[in-house]
Amino acid sequence: MQSTPKSESHLSNGKAAILGFQHLLAMYAGDVIVPLMIGGALHFSAAQMAALICADIFMCGIATLLQLKRTPLTGIALPVVLGCAVQAVGPLKTIGAQYGLGVMYGSIIAAGIFVFLISGWFAKLKSFFPPVVTGSLITIIGFSLVPVGFQDLGGGDLASKSFGAPSALLVGFFTMVVILLLNAYAKGFLKSISILVGILAGTLLAEAMGMVSLKSVGQASWLQLPQPFRFATPKFEWSSIVTMILVSLTTMIESTGVFFALGNITGKEVNSDDLKRGYRAEGLAVILGGIFNTFPYSTFSENVGIVQLSGVKTRQPVYYSAVFLMLLGLLPKVGALATAVPTPVLGGAMIVLFGMVGVQGIRMLQDVDFQNNNNLLVAAISIGLGMGVTVYPQVFQDLPTSVQIILDNGVVIGSFSALLLNILLNRRAKPAVVEAQVQSQAVESKSK
């Protein structure tokens, strides 16, 4: 009798809950930063900011549940965590400042409806995502986020005089060392929760160095219920809608790469029907984000790294993570505890996670025939462009804002490049190959 593979084995509720908390910590900082950036830019008061963060965290849990649970219409049923789409930060700040909150939330709802409606058609493009495209995309997603981890490792704020302080570097690298040691020498469940243990160990060291503040916990309220249209009633303006549709298309492409990466890790073949349900779930999550005055939601790449690193590939821990997110959204005082984790600690963990995502992309590229020079060009140019834009996004600063939305994100430009180059170099090359085979067969038949 064959043993049950680890990806399908049933974890105890306690272990699944701990693994779910590890997923939550990995995505929490990246998710909270979006409402902080947008709320700050649009001059939200302290009370409004607290309500915005709570509603956002709650909706992250709802959005994740929509993907985890397979229904006749939605849910890709992979261990995927959803959070705020970072690509939307710049456009939402611009729309909110120029047209007001009502138009901003209206454009989010319209974009969600668009994603939901085109999900079936977009899923049919699966043939446009061979290993050379998906492998390149996942490689770009992982390695383009590593600089974000390094920025957090240094303290988060590049303009601060304390950026790169020895204390920040110490706790950040200490977190990394703990994670690496546990993965190298620990066994069983302790190895599976290496990220969580590393973050907790780094936080304890930071506390001993006076780097942890619990002020936000004391100021937070005990209960906060999500409320539709809390900040504004949606209004609709065509240019804002078009802008958010463009952003949604880029998040769909990124999600496609994450879906294939998780399918590769868990050993599940992702077909067009799976993709359709996944896109619909994201579209529904975006609609709900607009209704509850939060943000668009998409898959979080860092949680792919946790699935790979922990070796636990079942959805059970992610269900716990979704429930925890909803509870934190309802209980601001408890949720504030997670914000007490110092940024350098999170940065140390992120470098490991994002690096693992990038290497997963390289593993996917191992299935590509690089004897074919066209495949080599697709991977080389798309990864090169993606990484180049990540380092120097200001190269497109003189282009129109609508164009910058697409081009100043390394994942987006790398994804589009991989898709277009594969179409131009590989899919166009197929007819020529077939014609050559036909001619060869004709010559052989004549010789006979």
Write the layout of secondary structure elements.
Elements (H helix, E strand, L loop, with lengths): L12 H29 L4 H23 L13 E3 L4 H11 L1 H23 L7 H23 L12 H20 L2 H5 L1 H15 L6 H5 L18 H29 L5 H20 L5 E3 L2 H9 L5 H15 L1 H7 L4 H23 L7 H19 L9 H7 L2 H18 L1 H19 L1
Antiparallel strand pairs: 1-2
Q: Give the total of beta strands.
A: 2
Residue fraction in strands:
under 5%
Helix-and-strand structural type: mainly alpha
Largest sheet: 2 strands, antiparallel
- On the 0 to 100 scale, the average pLDDT is 81
User: Strand arrangement, largest sheet?
Assistant: 1-2
| Overall 3D form | globular
| Low-pLDDT residue spans | 1-8, 431-445
- What level of helicity do the residues show? over 70%
State the end-to-end CA separation.
54 Å
Total of DSSP H or I helical runs spanning 4+ residues:
19
Give me the Rg, rounded: 22 Å
Instruction: Give helix and strand order, one letter per element, not per position.
Output: HHEHHHHHHHHHEHHHHHHHH
Give structural notes.
- The protein is mainly alpha-helical and about 450 residues long.
- The chain is built from 19 helices and two strands.
- It has helices spanning about 15-40, 45-70, 90-100, 100-125, 130-155, 165-185, 190, 195-210, 215-220, 240-265, 270-290, 300-310, 315-330, 330-340, 345-365, 375-390, 400-405, 410-425, 430-445, and strands at about 80-85, 295-300.
- It has a two-stranded antiparallel sheet with strand order 1-2.
- Helix 4 packs antiparallel against helix 11 and helix 8 packs antiparallel against helix 15.
- The termini are far apart.
